[in-house]
Amino acid sequence: MKNFAVVCEYNPFHFGHEYHISELKKQGANVICVMSGDFCQRGEAAVLDKYARARAALSGGADLVLELPFPYSAAGAEKFAFGALDIISRLGFSTELSFGSECGDADTILRTAKNTLSEEFKTLLTKELGENPEKPFASVYFDTYHSLFREEGIFTGSNNILGVAYASQIVERGLPVSISTIKRAGQNFGGTGEGLASATHIREKLFKEGIMSLKELMPKYSYEILKSEAEAERIVYPEGMFNIFTSFLRMHVPSDIAHFAENDISLVARLIKAGKEAHSSEELFAFAATKKYSPSRVRRALLFSYFGVTQEMLCTPPAYTTLLAANARGRELLSVSRKNASIPIITKLADYEKYGEDVKRAFEFSEKAASVRALAQGKVGSASELMKKAPYIEK
Q1: Which of 27, 64, 108, 116 minimizes the number of CB atoms within 10 Å of its CB?
Q2: Which of 66, 59, 49 is nearest to 15 (CA)?
Q3: Angle 265-277/295-307 helices, nearest 10 degrees?
Q4: Phi and psi for 131 in degrees, rounded to 5?
Q5: Which residue, among 47, 42, 385, has the nearest Cα to 233 in the 3D structure?
C-alpha cells in the first residue's frame, strides 16, 4: 500500500486540509502527517495545542500524526522543510511527499528546486545580496531567479515556495522521498481570494468575531474540537504572548540577543525599542517590521531570541519525533517503524530519557516551548500537566 507524507500545521484544520487528505485516500493510501508542534512557521503560538490538532487530523482522514518539534516548526521555509523531510526520510518505510500548491505541477516545482541549487544561481544570488543589503532576502532571491531563468509565476504562491523548499531538500540531500502535488483549493495563504477559507482567515475571524463565526468554515468535527478547547480556555490568542515577549525585550540590550537565529543587530535594536513602546502584540510587530524585515521574520527573530535558538540548532537534524495520534493503519505503520526507523518515535512522554542524551536535550528544549505556550492560553496551563499528555489512539 502506498504511503503519502503530508507536512502540515493544521492551525486549525479546515476544509482545504480535508480535501487534500481525501484526494490521497482515494488512492487507497496511508496518510502520515508530520505536524508542527506548539509554535508554527510564522513564529506564532499554535491556536490549539498539538494533540487537539492531531485529533482533528485523524477525524479528517489521516492515519498517523507525528510531531515536527520546536524549533523546526517555527523556522522559515528552508529549515522547516529540513526538519520535516529529515523525519519523513527516517521513518523506516517508503513515502511520497504530497503537498498543496498553487501551480499543481510537481515537475515545475522540482525543476525550479534544481535551478536554485545550481552554482550559477548561488553565485549570482550571493552577488545580488551583497549589492542590495537593505532589500528583503526573499525579494532579492526571487528577482535573482527571474533574471537568470526568465520564469515567472512559481514564486507568486506561498505553497509553491514551500514546495520548492521541500524539493530542494530532497534533491540536495539525496533523500529517498518522491514528491507529488495537488492544486490548492480555495483562498491563498494570506486569506484572500475565493473558495474554501484559509487557516489565516479562520484565525482572524476567531480573534475578531469569536468561535460562532467559524461554524460554516470548518468541518464539523474540527469546529467541535476548536469550540471545546475555546470553552476550556485553552486557545492562544495573539495577546497571550505580549507580556511574555515585552518583559524579555525590556531586560536586554541588542548585543545580548543579536547572535540568535533570524537576527541581526539592526533588527534586534528595532525589536527592543518596540518592546519599550508597544501596547499590544499588533503594535509590537508593526513597530519592528520594515520593508527588509517582514512581520514573519520579526516574529521568528523574537521567538528564537526568547528561547535561545541558534542557527546551528536549525542545521542539526531532529533528534526525535513524537506520536500525536494514530488509527489502526497508523499503528501498523508504527510497528514497521519500530523495526526499521532511524529516528526515535516517542510514544510515551515520560520515557523520553530512555532514548539517549541527544534526544533528552532536544525533547526538554521543545517542552520549554510547550510550557510557554501553555502560559499564553486563556486559562494558564501547568508545565507538569504537559508531561501527562497522551497520543490520541482511535480504537
Answers
A1: 27
A2: 59
A3: 90
A4: -85, -10
A5: 47
State the DSSP H helix or E strand holding residue 111, giving kind and residue range, or none if neither: helix 106-116
C-alpha cell at 22: 481525501
- Cβ neighbourhood burial of 134 (10 Å; 0-12, 13-18, 19+): exposed
Q: Tell me, what amino acid is at 324?
A: L
Q: What is the chain's mean pLDDT, rounded?
A: 94
Which whole number is the average pLDDT over 189-200? 66
Measured between its terminal Cα atoms, the distance across the chain in Å is: 21
Residue 78 DSSP code: H
Residue type, 128: E
Per-residue cell: 162: 514551500
Q: Does residue 189 surpass a pLDDT of 50?
A: no
Asked if 245 and 375 count as a contact pair (C-beta separation under 8 A), the reply is no
Among 301, 259, 76, smallest CA distance to 169 is for 76
In 3D space, the residue among 318, 317, 323, 335 whose CA is nearest the CA of residue 62 turns out to be: 323
pLDDT at 153: 65
Contact 8, 35 (CB under 8 A): yes
Phi/psi of residue 7, each to 5°?
A: -95, 130
pLDDT per position as a tens digit, 12-63? 999 999 999 999 999 999 999 999 999 999 999 999 999 999 999 999 999 9
pLDDT tens track for 313-342: 999 999 999 999 999 999 999 999 999 999
pLDDT at 191: 45
